[in-house]
Specification:
Family: Belongs to the bacterial ribosomal protein bS16 family.
Number of domains: 2
Organism: Pseudorhodobacter antarcticus
Distance between the termini: 82 Å
GO cellular component, one term: cytoplasm
Protein name: Small ribosomal subunit protein bS16
CATH class of the largest domain: Alpha Beta
Structural class: alpha+beta
Shape: elongated
CATH superfamily of the largest domain: Ribosomal protein S16
GO molecular function: structural constituent of ribosome
Number of strands: 5
């Protein structure tokens, strides 16, 4: 059985509140879980200690049983010191997409055309 430590959404519309749960990976996001390990309230300030609360002892237990945390939960564990920090590198994040590249090229060509005309007039005089 593949185990996950992930977030289960609760709260009302536009007022999210998440539970950190240990569950079978085949279960739905908000479905059946084995144990509630903590809570996450994204509406609180980032420096608030009530934003993320978790039972570190039980999280360690589930990790030792082979449970895999999701990306967001893994970040919570890193900030709590329960897991070593993973090096992340996404070099393509700063590269503009195809459409933006085309627009930039058109703009550069449009700006270069008047500059060339001014240079041509200067040399003709």
């Amino acid at each position: 059985m593949s185990m996950k430590i992930r977030l289960a959404r609760g709260g009302s519309k536009k007022r999210p509140h998440y539970s950190i749960v240990a569950t079978d990976s085949r279960m739905p996001r908000d479905g059946r879980f084995l144990e509630k390990l903590g809570t996450y309230n994204p509406l609180l300030a980032k420096d608030s200690e009530d934003r993320v609360k978790m039972n570190a002892e039980r999280v360690q237990y589930w990790l030792s049983q082979g449970a895999q945390p999701t990306d967001r939960v893994a970040r919570f564990l890193e900030s709590a010191g329960l897991r070593e920090k993973k090096v992340r590198n996404n070099p393509k994040a700063a590269v503009p997409g195809k459409r933006m590249t085309e627009l930039t090229a058109k703009k550069a060509a449009r700006n270069a055309a008047p500059a060339e005309a001014v240079a041509a007039e200067a040399t003709a005089e």
